[in-house]
Amino acid sequence: MQTVRKDIHNSEVPVLCQSCEARHQGICGALNPEQLLTLSKATRRVRKDAGEELMADAMPISSYSNVLRGVIKLTKVLEDGRQQVVGLQFAPDLLGRPFASESRVSVEAASQVDLCVIPKQALEALMLDSAPLEHRVMMQALRELDEARDWMVTLGRKTAAEKVASFLFMIASHIDPTDEEARAKFDLPLSRSDIADFLGLTIETVSRQISKLKADGVIEIVNYRHVTVPDLARLRVRCG
Amino acid sequence: MQTVRKDIHNSEVPVLCQSCEARHQGICGALNPEQLLTLSKATRRVRKDAGEELMADAMPISSYSNVLRGVIKLTKVLEDGRQQVVGLQFAPDLLGRPFASESRVSVEAASQVDLCVIPKQALEALMLDSAPLEHRVMMQALRELDEARDWMVTLGRKTAAEKVASFLFMIASHIDPTDEEARAKFDLPLSRSDIADFLGLTIETVSRQISKLKADGVIEIVNYRHVTVPDLARLRVRCG
DNA sequence: CGGAAGCTTGAATATGCTCAACACGGGTGG
DNA sequence: CCACCCGTGTTGAGCATATTCAAGCTTCCG
Lengths: 240, 240
Description:
The structure is a homodimer.
Chain A: H1 15-18, H2 33-40, E1 44-48, E2 53-55, E3 63-69, E4 71-77, E5 83-90, E6 94-95, E7 106-109, E8 113-119, H3 120-129, H4 131-157, H5 160-175, E9 184-187, H6 192-199, H7 203-215, E10 220-222, E11 226-229, H8 232-236
Antiparallel strand pairs in A: 1-8, 2-7, 3-6, 3-8, 4-5, 4-7, 9-11, 10-11
Helix pairs in contact in A: 3-4, 5-7, 6-7
Chain B binds a DNA duplex through residues 159-160, 191-193, 201-208, 210-211, 223-224.
């Protein structure tokens, strides 16, 4: 049962935003109805399929996007084609490097996604105007920095088995943020190839380690993508 | 020949700040003399030797610090002792995770450092008050995020040889930011052990790769720490 | 039913690690 | 002033882990 949340001046809240899941989360939560109205005049909702590129590395940025649904992957590529996933973004994250004219990563839809696209100018103007908004954008950047540093430990110091366990554990806690002792059930938002690029491994190694976790009864796999973890704590101890 | 820079109301600029190298850089550059005066009443200068720990992981934070001289390393440690350096900070960076009650990394002086220590309360109060200050802090966070992501590519996808070359290239460009075609000469701010922890390698592998670069004439080593790079472009191509 | 894409499994190989010995340089004390 | 010692760095040999290359298997779709 879903009810529309009440704003103080709900009549002033743009129609599109009234039913938006992200209205009170992410950056929009920092805006008053008036600011929301200004912003909403410039935004548009877009759906993208898995695999579509939203922004290329080193290309000019013309817009930010709110992630409303689905998973986005940020990647970097070496000249010879070696690829590394450097970040994953979920709803209600804001997409786009604030205050940069060029993207420093390539941005791609990992699953089907819904986005609320915001022109660069519009959001940056509003940020100069609204300290709470800028603050929220900063808090997201800081959270991403924490996550990146956590991941550096995984990339630099964990074994293949620990890397794969860490990845599964991260997805499990992100998608299904129940208790650590609980059972979890979810669909992997990434292909084996994406997981490999995220972990700095080959797809074969990822596959072998997943098979091993399955053989050891730590996870159950149906249909490649669908995973069940009977006991998250048992997965947790495999993360190193 | 060093001259003291003129502020509009130089008389109002605190004595300590007047001769401070970082006065117009880092976060202090975003402050007017009045704000600087308020802040300076709470700060104190501290010198730390290489190896001293400034902040422990998961411990409460009571202060921020401006790095005035030297190199700081941010590390994370796994339960079994495996260590990963997740960031390096140079002058005039601000030390300390903004708006967090606990540190998420362990902070250690990699060389002898001079710091300007700022109580947590004082800086955060000023940030709420001054959008330009908060903006500058955000810009640093975003730069650190960019750097972390660049480093994830190195950790995840580069060979040992490329990792070591990348590290030397990064230090060379940071310490001696001359042209890429130029000759560079500098002291390594990190021990072999720190370099290994930064690159996700062992000290033996780091040593071997440095020896190889030396044998190939890409770098010259005097005295372990002191490095000369006759041609940065030749080092650059080894970074992958 | 056939084909393609994505995934798994196996065998051989290479890259970086472990363990161990040794070298260098700086400081200390006889 | 030299001998010694300790921390730090280098080098070598054997080994383990993850990669490469190759084949075969699922699942999805036409």
